[in-house]
Amino acid sequence: MKFLMFAMYDAAKTADVAAASDKISSTPGLEILGGYVCMGIPFPGFPENTLLTVSVVEVESSEAMATAAYPLALAGATVWHVPVLEVATGGGGEAEKKYRG
Known about the structure:
Elements: E1 2-10, H1 14-24, E2 30-37, E3 50-59, H2 62-74, E4 78-83, H3 92-100
């Protein structure tokens, strides 16, 4: 299943979070499809001097998800996952009809 994995952390924790991120990249059952660091304030009210990374991940189990999130949390990041549905470009109408039933 695909998820967006968000990690929010104080800029002072960047080295610790980067080291934890390097460790989790080889987690069995987890494939990191892409990773991004927001270069500005991602949404209103976001704390100053805080970074947000967004990764697109595919996980095989909740255990793989926890195995990836826990080291980031220990490094000082707040981590959350959002499940996403992949819809082909130009295929939104067909997907909507399918899920409407």
